[in-house]
Amino acid sequence: xxxxxxxxxxxxxxxxxxxxxxxxxxxxxxxxxxxxxxxxxxxxxxxxxxxxxxxxxxxxxxxxxxxxxxxxxxxxxxxxxxxxxxxxxxxxxxxxxxxxxxxxxxxxxxxxxxxxxxxxxxxxxxxxxxxxxxxxxxxxxxxxxxxxxxxxxxxxxxxxxxxxxxxxxxxxxxxxxxxxxxxxxxxxxxxxxxxxxxxxxxxxxxxxxxxxxxxxxxxxxxxxxxxxxxxxxxxxxxxxxxxxxxxxxxxxxxxxxxxxxxxxxxxxxxxxxxxxxxxxxxxxxxxxxxxxxxxxxxx
Amino acid sequence: xxxxxxxxxxxxxxxxxxxxxxxxxxxxxxxxxxxxxxxxxxxxxxxxxxxxxxxxxxxxxxxxxxxxxxxxxxxxxxxxxxxxxxxxxxxxxxxxxxxxxxxxxxxxxxxxxxxxxxxxxxxxxxxxxxxxxxxxxxxxxxxxxxxxxxxxxxxxxxxxxxxxxxxxxxxxxxxxxxxxxxxxxxxxxxxxxxxxxxxxxxxxxxxxxxxxxxxxxxxxxxxxxxxxxxxxxxxxxxxxxxxxxxxxxxxxxxxxxxxxxxxxxxxxxxxxxxxxxxxxxxxxxxxxxxxxxxxxxxxxxxx
Lengths: 299, 303
Description:
Chain A is mainly α and 299 residues long. Chain A is 73% helix and 0% strand. Chain B has a two-stranded antiparallel ribbon.
C-alpha cells in the first residue's frame, strides 16, 4: 500500500498535494500498525488450540491438569504418545488411510483422464446427455446418500472393507470437467501430428494431453487427498474393525474408549499422532500447497 | 460447395473402431456415477415412501407418511431449526471474516507466511481432530475458553452441557475451521485484481474504506457468491462436530440433519424415516448446488 501511495508524490510536485499525501501516509501508517496488532492477536487466538494441544500432549499423566497448571507441567514427557500407540492401533489406521486415499486418487486420475479426453476430443452421439448425467454428481453430495449407498455396500458384501470406503468416489464429475477443460486447450495440430506418426489413442493421450495437464492434475490430487484423508461419516458407516478403519474413525473410537475418559494428555497425544504428519507435510510443502491454490487463480 | 465439405468431414472422422472408443472411455465414470449417485438418489426417494423399521416385518407402502410423521414431530422440527440456524450464523461470519483477513494479509507484511499459516492450518486438519481439540478447549474448569473468560473476570460456562450454548459452541468450531479455507480463495481473488484501478482510486483521494466498499467488494462479488455456496452446502452437511463433541445433546440441542439421518438409521434402525430425511436434505442442497453449475469454470480455475 505504501509504495502505491509514495510513487505519485514524485510526479506531483505541488506542495499542497505533497502535504496532503504525507498526512494521509501518516494516517495510513498508524492504521497499519494498529491493524497489524489486531491481526496478530486474532492470529494467535486462531493458533492457540493447536499449541495448547501440543503442550498438553507432553503433560505428565501423574500431574493433574488444573487452572494453574495448564500447559506442559513441571516434567514434560513423551509417555502419552507411547501409551496412545499401545492402546490404539494408530499405525494400522495410518496404513488404512493411506491405502484408501491413494486408491481413490489413482482410480480417479485414470477415470477422469479417459472421460475428459473423450468429452474434449471425440464427438459421439449422446455426448451431451452423458456429460449432464455425470455432472449431476455435483448436485447430490455423497453425504446425503449414505443411507442407500450403505445398502448397496451391504448387498455387494463389501461391508467393513477398504474397497467399500473407496468405491463411491471412483467417479468424479468435477475431475472429468477439469480434465475436459484442460484437454480442450491442447492444440489439435499436436494431436493430428501424433496420429500421423502412428500413435494410437492411448499413446496420444499419454504423450500429448497428459503432460500439459499436469498442474491441473496436481491441483485435483491435492483437493482429493485432503477431502478423503479427512472424510469421516462414510467410513464410519461402512467400517467396523481395525482392518478397515481410517485414522478419523480410529481417533473417534479412541477418544470414546471408556478407559480414556478425560485423560486429556492421552487424548491430545492421540489427536496429534493423527494430525502431526499431516501438519509436517503441510509445513514442508506449504508453498506448493497454497501456491497451487493461488497460482491456478492467477490464470 | 457441398463436396469439399463432406470430404473434409470425412477426413476428420476418426479411424475404424473409433465409434465405440469414446463410449468405452466414459464408461468407468458413468458406471460409478450411476451406481453411487444416480441410482441411490432414485432408491432413497422410493424407500422414503415405505414404513421400514423394526416394528414392521415387511416394508409397507405409506405414501408420504414418513414425511408427515417427521414434520409432525417436534424433535425433527428442532433438528431442521438447528441446521438452518447453524448455516445462517456460521456462513456470513466465516465468509466476512475470511474477506477481512484476506484484505489485511494482501500487502507486504513481515511474517506474512506465519499469519497465513495461523489462519489456514485448521482447514487441513480433519474435522474429527479439530473437534477433539475443541472438546478439550470447552472443558469446564480448566478448558482454555473458560480460563480466558476468567482472565476477563467473566463467569465460566458449561459450553457443551448447556442446551442454550452447545450449538453456539459448535458454530465457533465451524467458523474457526473453515475461515482460513475461504481466505485462500479471497487471497487468490485479490491477487487477480489489477493494480491500476487501486492506484487511480488513491490518486482520486479515496479512503481505504471507500476503496474496499466501492472497488474491491464489487470486483470480488463473483468470488463471494462462489465461497458462500460452498459454505452453505458444507454447513448443511455438518456432522463431525456433533458426533465427537455432543452426540447430539443436550436434549437434541446440537442434532443437525445429517447427524439425525445417521442416528435414525444406525441407532433407531428406521430405514423409511432415514430415507425421507435424506430426500429432505437432498432437496435443500439442490437449491444451492444448482449454483455449482454456473460456478464450474471458476472451480476449475481455483481448485
